[in-house]
Each structure stands twice: as C-alpha cells, then as structure tokens.
Amino acid sequence: MKNNERTIGIVGTGMIASSMAVLAAGHGFKTAVLARSQKSVDRCSGVVDGFFGQMVDKGKVSAEQAGRFKGYINYCFDYEGLKDSEIIFESAVEVLETKYEVYRAIEAHCPKVKAICSVSSSIVPAKLAGGGGAYDDRIIVTHPFNPPHLVPFFEICGSEGTADGVVDYAVSLLEELDRKPVKLNKPTPGFIGNRLQFALWREALALVEEGICAPEAVDTCLEYSFCPRYTSIGIFEHFDNGGLELNAATCRNIWPILSTATEIPDSMKKLMEEGKMGARSELKQGFYDWNGVDMKAYAERVSAPYWNMFDWKLPEE
After folding, report:
1. Which of 61, 110, 113, 217 could serve as 65's disulfide partner, Cβ 3.0–4.6 Å?
2. CB within 8 A of 70, min separation 6: which ones?
3. Which of 15-19, 178-182, 190-194, 218-222 has the lowest mean pLDDT?
4. Boundaries of every domain in the chain
C-alpha cells in the first residue's frame, strides 16, 4: 500500500503536533489533524507553512513538493475525521483525565488504529493506559524532541499491559518517517534524553555555583570540546574505544566530586527572585542578557546541526 493510501492521525495543534504533521505529510501520508477551533487550525497551518518554508529555503524540498505535501494535511474538528488512522499521535495537555477523554473518543471512532502514541514527556505508559478502555493495550509513549520533523530521535516505551507488536509497529512506522527511534526496556521519569541532559545541566550549574567558572565558559566548553563529537559517535563507543581501564581510573577520580544536588542552586534561585527567568521573560535576562540578541539568528544556530541530519526519502507522488 502506498503512503498516500495510509492515514496518520494527530490529536492537537501545538508545536509538536504541527511538526508531526509536517513529518507525516512530508513522507506522503494522509495526515488528519484534530483541532479544537478554527483559530487552532489557523495557528497550526501557519506553523506548518513556516516549517515547509524553511525546508524549501534549505534546499531540502522544492516549492512544488512542499505545496503537494501540505495538501496531504486535513484538519478536522471531531474524531470522525481520524477514523481511517492506522496510528494516532496524541499531544494533548499533560493532564491525565484530558488524555483519557482523548483515548475514549479514539476507541469510539477509530476502528483501524494499531497504536496510540502519546508524546508525553512526564507521564509513564502505565498511567496513560489506565483510562483507555478497550484500547489500553495500544497506548504507548513515543517521546520526541522538538521539533520532531527536524530532530530524528524518539524514545519509545510501553507498559506491562502493552499488546505484543504494538511497540515494534510504532518503531517501524517511525523508521518509515526517517526517525531514529529507540525502545526502553522499562519506563523511567525523563526517559533517556532528559535524564542525560539534566545530569549535565546539574553539573554545569554546580561549576558556576562553586565559582569555578562563568556560564559562558561552560557553554564554550560544550560547543568546542566534546559535544560535537557526539553527533557522529556515541558515548559508549567513545569510552570503549579509549579503554575501560583508563576510563575506570578517571571515574574514581572525578565521580566523588560530582554534584549530588537534589534542589536548584542558590544562584538560580536568586535570578528567579529577581524576575530574570530567561530569554522569554519580561526582563529578557537569565544567566545571559538577551536584550538586543538576534533571536532569528539564534534559532538558526539551534537548528543548524539537525539540517545536516536531514535525509528524508521523499515520496515521488
């Protein structure tokens, strides 16, 4: 069956949902997006247009292809519009009862669905599956990083009650979408990506809090030392190649001094008390002063590494 004879459903119109619509439609799938209002549709379609426009500007797709892909997206206001979906990505707010309402509606209207994939970053699959009725065994987490049409990684986790084949089906579908999905053997708060990211963030904060260096020094270290390495090899590859004997010796020397903090540091609390909540705050200050910063150029820097990974197998029609 050709992709344009298959339907991917998306519940929601936020940034993740809009990006997922681009990903699905850009691979030739019929894409049904459930919206709450025309205002939501207008906002989502504007984001979709922007994402496809970036792809055209980067030479990843032609204007003709982008126009054709956008034509695969159908916005609807009730679950009947999702009835032909073989898989549905749920990006409702992180409130269990709201998600349960979504799952019950999917069960009532979508007889063909093989997997219901929540993009939740904080709720484990067993809790999600507690309100799905007959479809409980099809509800899993497929956690992306924003925006998922550009960032390839997905981390996938089911629960003890997940039916055989559901996770593997979701992995296969995401691979068709040129993503890099991995399966977790069991759930954990933060999954893989956020546990790693926030462990690094805790140590970065500790270096600043202890007066060892300024935030700018930490960022320069990350940008120009080991972080670029990990866009082409993995950390287990790296340390395996260096030799475990040397690695073990370094672990013994460094691990005892690493941060074990379970609360945010005083330096961060002070900034927050002063209303310096970061780039999007009223003061536009945090660890950095964002006043006068070219945010469009900053966004380009954020996306730059991922454009190098863009390798979609574009559909012919």
Report:
1. 61
2. 25, 48, 49, 52
3. 190-194
4. 3-183, 193-307
Give dist(CA 180, CA 171) in Å, integer: 9
pLDDT for residue 1: 66
**In percent, how much of the chain has pLDDT > 70?**
99
Residue type, 196: L
Query: Which CATH topology does 193-307 take?
Result: N-(1-d-carboxylethyl)-l-norvaline Dehydrogenase; domain 2 (1.10.1040)
pLDDT value at residue 236: 97
pTM: 0.93
Distance CA 207, CA 7 (A): 49
Residue 273 phi, psi dihedral angles, 5° rounding? -65, -30
Task: Report H helices in the chain.
Answer: 15-25, 38-57, 63-70, 96-109, 125-128, 166-176, 193-209, 215-224, 235-242, 244-254, 266-273, 295-307
The count of C-alpha atoms lying within 13 angstroms of the C-alpha of 98, restricted to the half-sphere facing its C-beta, is 11
